[in-house]
Amino acid sequence: MVGMRDVAKQAGVSLSTVSLVVNGTGYVSDDMRDRVQRAMESLHYVPNDLARNFSQNRANTIGIIVPTIRHPFFATLTAGLQHVLAGKGLQTLLCSTADAAHGEAAYVDMLRRRLMDGIVMGAHTEHAPDYWTSIHRPVIAFDRTLGEGIPSIGSDHVQGGQMIADLLIRTGARHVAVIGGPHTQFKEDDDVRTTFPTVRYHLVLEHELAKVGVRYEYIEAGEVMDFSGYAAAVRSVFDRAPDDAVDAVVSSDIGAALCVREAIRRGVNVPDDMQIVAYDGTYLADMAGMPLTVVRQDFQALTSSVADCMMRLIDGKAGDGSVDDGDDSGDAVSAVSSHGAFGIGEAEHLIPVSLIAGATTRE
């Protein structure tokens, strides 16, 4: 088996020079680097990544935990994270908690044993906040809060809810139905502080519509991976009696796309008789049968922020749970006081969303 000593002998350099080239550390002249690389190629030398990572106390692997990769939001997110992290020399291990009952515990165990460098936690967890801080290893909460000391990155859902409310109020909506996941995951005893920041767009929308007398109704569609639940919820909207008719629906890309298809099937005019707004802006929004009006989450900014924060945590530069992307442009929002009523935490980093007008709303 070819080793670094063989490469050093072939290149006519010292073993330490070969080590510097292989590990990408220290200064090596271009001439020396070329000699080492030619020797590696001629000998078909393959660096021992396991030994190299061990010497650097790095695994170069990040765990990504999501509820399911069947959902277009999490499919888009994980694909983006894998791409961005790969650009930083990091591999990813993906865990879908819906498909692996003990996946979360197994990944945390791997993190404790330093078989991973960090975890991006984007799934529901019932662990107390001190569980995550007790790991003493890099953990980032994506679109949820895990507790003080754990950085949280996600979209500005308060902004998203306000955008939808403004649009529907301007266009004369009278009865708005929102189709989403189990309501028990969002609120407990009417407490708006929740580990699921996504609920903020529901809370803002309900609050703003109530101020102007527009009826708001929340319809549960089951768990995030339950596509049949979304289809049933959509059908229930169209089965209403005329005096209880819904004239605007807000849902994820899945629910919104199903709503367009059901409207076409039943001959309901969109947007004159029913307006439809999607929330996420994944690839599914382009395949609904007509261009959806959508609140689009900025996946590029989200994944870049997660990757940059993870690198700082791994390097020990953000051990206090803060998230600092070095951008003073003001585009990202951190601990916005005006959002305090909806549970914004001090370690949260919020990425702005955008409203993209389509053919499913009247404006």
What does this protein structure show overall?
By secondary structure, the chain is of the alpha/beta class. 38% of the residues lie in helices and 17% in strands. The protein contains 12 helices and 13 strands. Helix 9 links the parallel strand 6 and strand 7 (215-220).
Order of helix and strand elements from N to C terminus: HHHHEHEHEHEEHEHEHEHEEHEEE
Strand content: 15-25%
**Helix content, binned percent:** 25-40%
Structural class of the secondary structure composition?
Answer: alpha/beta
Q: Please state the average pLDDT score.
A: 84
Number-wise, the strands total 13
Tell me the major beta sheet. Answer: 7 strands, mixed
| Assembly state | single chain
As laid out across the biggest beta sheet, the strand order is: 2-1-3-4-5-12-11
From the N-terminal CA to the C-terminal CA, the straight-line distance is: 68 Å
Computed over alpha carbons, the radius of gyration is: 25 Å
Low-confidence stretches: 188-193, 319-330, 333-338
Dominant shape: elongated
- The number of helical elements comes to 12
Quick tags:
7-stranded mixed β-sheet, elongated, single chain, alpha/beta, 363 residues, 6-stranded mixed β-sheet
Furnish the topology, listing elements before pairings.
Elements: H1 4-11, H2 15-23, H3 30-43, H4 49-55, E1 61-66, H5 72-87, E2 91-96, H6 103-112, E3 118-121, H7 129-133, E4 139-142, E5 152-155, H8 157-170, E6 175-180, H9 199-211, E7 215-220, H10 227-238, E8 248-252, H11 253-266, E9 275-280, E10 293-296, H12 299-314, E11 333-334, E12 348-351, E13 354-356
Parallel strand pairs: 1-2, 1-3, 3-4, 4-5, 5-12, 6-7, 6-8, 8-9, 9-10
Antiparallel strand pairs: 10-13, 11-12
Helix pairs in contact: 1-2, 1-3, 5-12, 8-9, 10-11
